[in-house]
């Protein structure tokens, strides 16, 4: 499981402790959420899965006494059961209550990334730190997993392929976690996202322009807890140049035929009658 950690130091600005992810794929939802608030994004595609968890508060503060945050970017190209268990522990803790929160994850990461160690990692940030950073994150997630309650597997589940639901609804949150499990197991593809700014209508508009299934948790009261999202909108294609020329030529031919018929069948008036 590839692991990236974004944070800052007392003086150093936010940057990754190790290598930088190949792409900032989470920017797909930059208009629908604030990454400075706890946001959870999971994406499953043909090459594997990836997770982004932002704004985990730490006990560290910068020079302005502002709380320093950490963000995790995890990914894998194949299914590994232990990795899936760690990710599910993170997602379950994140959505344990009606308000999305990293919960104990922040405390566990603080234990693995104390201030002095984090400053050293920041000073020498780069690929050489990857193994150490991944080991510390894995240890925090393993403890979180060991302390997490087991899923009884009997909870009600939303079966629709794409939906938006109120994050305050327990059934909606449980369905979200189960979708993530299916995505990690490669039984489902698409997006599972918890957003801070968007409502169900915004999510629906975003989904209408995409090709992948999407389930989203939003900060909005929704009658019944959730709504199904319509599939991708069918867009009208603009006629191409060939089509336009074909129509123009056909129109010219029709006009020419009409002119010829009128000319041929025009009555001949005798000269003496003029």
Structural features, described:
The chain has 274 residues and is α+β, with helices and mostly antiparallel strands. It has two domains: 2-228, no CATH class; 241-273. Helix content is 35%, strand content 20%. It is built from seven helices and nine strands; from the N terminus they run E-E-E-E-E-H-H-H-H-E-H-E-H-E-E-H. The protein has helices at 81-94, 104-112, 115-123, 130-147, 170-184, 200-207, 241-264; strands at residues 2-7, 15-16, 39-45, 48-61, 67-76, 163-166, 190-194, 214-218, 226-228. Strands 2-1-5-4-3-7-8-6-9 form a nine-stranded mixed sheet, sandwiched between helices. The longest helix is centred in the C-terminal third of the chain and has 24 residues, at 241-264.
The global form is globular
**Sheet of most strands:** 9 strands, mixed
Strand content: 15-25%
Mean pLDDT: 89
Helix/sheet category:
alpha+beta
Describe what is shown at a glance.
This protein has helices at residues 81-94, 104-112, 115-123, 130-147, 170-184, 200-207, 241-264, and strands at residues 2-7, 15-16, 39-45, 48-61, 67-76, 163-166, 190-194, 214-218, 226-228.
């Amino acid at each position: 499981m590839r692991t990236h950690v974004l944070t800052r130091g007392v003086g150093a600005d936010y940057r990754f402790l190790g290598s930088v992810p190949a792409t900032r794929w989470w920017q797909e939802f930059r208009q629908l959420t604030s990454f400075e608030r706890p946001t959870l994004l999971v994406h499953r595609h043909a090459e594997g899965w990836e997770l982004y968890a932002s704004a985990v508060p730490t006990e560290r503060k910068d020079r302005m006494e502002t709380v320093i945050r950490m963000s995790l970017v995890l990914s894998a190209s194949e299914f590994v059961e232990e990795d899936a268990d760690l990710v599910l522990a993170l997602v379950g803790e994140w959505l344990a209550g009606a308000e999305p929160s990293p919960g104990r994850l922040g405390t566990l990461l603080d234990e693995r990334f104390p201030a002095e160690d984090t400053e050293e990692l920041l000073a020498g940030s780069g690929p050489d730190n990857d193994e150490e950073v991944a080991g510390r994150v894995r240890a925090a997630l393993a403890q979180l997993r060991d302390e997490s309650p087991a899923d009884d597997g009997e909870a009600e589940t939303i079966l629709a392929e794409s939906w938006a639901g109120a994050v305050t609804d327990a059934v909606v949150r449980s369905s979200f976690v189960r979708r993530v499990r299916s995505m990690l197991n490669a039984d489902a593809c698409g997006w599972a996202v918890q957003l801070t700014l968007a409502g169900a209508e915004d999510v629906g508009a975003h989904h209408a322009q995409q090709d992948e299934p999407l389930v989203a948790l939003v900060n909005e009261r929704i009658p019944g807890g959730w709504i199904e999202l319509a599939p991708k909108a069918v867009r009208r294609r603009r006629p191409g140049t060939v089509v336009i020329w074909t129509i123009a030529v056909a129109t010219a031919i029709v006009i020419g035929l009409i002119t010829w018929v009128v000319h041929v069948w025009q009555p001949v008036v005798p000269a003496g009658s003029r």
